[in-house]
Design brief:
Blueprint: E1 3-9, H1 16-24, E2 29-33, H2 38-50, E3 56-61, E4 64-65, E5 80-86, E6 93-94, E7 104-108, H3 109-114, E8 123-124, E9 131-133, H4 135-145, E10 151-155, E11 157-158, E12 160-161, E13 163-166, E14 172-175, E15 183-184
Parallel strand pairs: 1-2, 1-3, 5-10
Antiparallel strand pairs: 3-7, 4-11, 5-6, 5-7, 8-9, 12-15, 13-14
C-alpha cells in the first residue's frame, strides 16, 4: 500500500510511544501542526494529500499509542478503516464497524475525492452551546453519503491527562482530567463505561 502518514499535533511534538511504533515499521511521516484545534489540521492534511500521488492517507493523533493490536491499520483492505480508542476512561469510546475514531484512521484517495470539503467539522446546536457532531462522526456521515461504511480493524491506546482519586477503601475512581495529571495509558478499566454508541463523548463528570 502507498500510504501517506500524517501525525496530527497541537504543539509540533510526537510522544515516544508513537515515535517508536513509526520507527519499528520504517514509516516516514509528516507533522501536521495545528494551532486552533484539530479540525483545521485534518482538513489541511487531506488537502495536501489530494495534491500528492498517494493512494491512502493515515491520520494518527499525537497522543495515540499504537501496539500489536494496531498493526492492521497498515494492511487491512478498505476505503475507511480505523482503530478503536477510549476517549476518556469511564466515558464513551468510539468502537465497532459503522463508528469512527480519528485517533488512527486510514482513508482512501477514492473516498476523499468523492467528498466535498470541508472534510472535517464540528457542528453545534442553534445557540452554539452544545456539540452535536464531533469531527469523527461528521466525517463518518459524509462517507456514508457517498456509499462508504467505516470498519474497525484494531485497537490503540490513548495518552490522557487525568486525575485518579481513591475512596476511603482504596478503590480508584477516575476524576475529570486536570492540569497537574500525568500522561498515562490506561491498561485496566477501573470504572464501567457508559453505553458505547456512534455519537460524541458525553460531557466530563464534574
Amino acid at each position: 500500500m502507498n500510504i501517506t502518514v500524517d501525525v496530527m499535533t497541537p504543539d509540533g511534538s510526537v510522544p515516544g510511544p508513537l515515535v517508536a511504533w513509526l520507527r519499528k515499521h520504517g514509516i516516514t511521516h509528516n507533522i501536521v501542526h495545528y494551532r486552533y484545534g484539530p479540525i483545521t489540521g485534518r482538513n489541511q492534511s487531506v488537502k495536501a494529500f489530494l495534491e500528492s500521488d498517494g493512494d491512502y492517507l493515515l491520520q494518527i493523533d499525537h497522543d495515540t499509542v499504537p501496539d500489536d493490536d494496531t498493526e492492521a491499520i497498515l494492511t487491512a483492505p478498505g476505503d475507511l478503516v480505523y482503530c478503536g480508542q477510549a476517549i476518556t476512561p469511564g466515558l464513551k469510546a468510539h468502537l465497532g464497524d459503522g463508528n469512527l475514531c480519528m485517533g488512527a484512521c486510514r482513508m482512501s484517495r477514492g473516498l476523499l475525492e468523492k467528498i466535498q470539503p470541508p472534510w472535517f467539522l464540528h457542528t453545534l446546536n442553534a445557540d452554539g452551546t452544545k456539540l452535536t457532531k464531533c469531527d469523527c462522526r461528521y466525517f463518518r456521515d459524509k462517507a456514508r453519503d457517498v456509499g462508504i461504511e467505516s470498519r474497525m480493524v484494531g485497537l490503540c491506546g490513548h495518552l490522557i491527562f487525568m486525575v485518579a482519586k481513591t475512596d476511603e477503601h482504596g478503590h480508584v475512581k477516575y476524576r475529570r482530567p486536570g492540569p497537574y495529571a500525568n500522561r498515562i495509558r490506561p491498561t485496566v478499566q477501573l470504572q464501567e463505561p457508559q453505553q458505547q454508541d456512534a455519537g460524541c463523548p458525553s460531557p466530563r463528570p464534574s
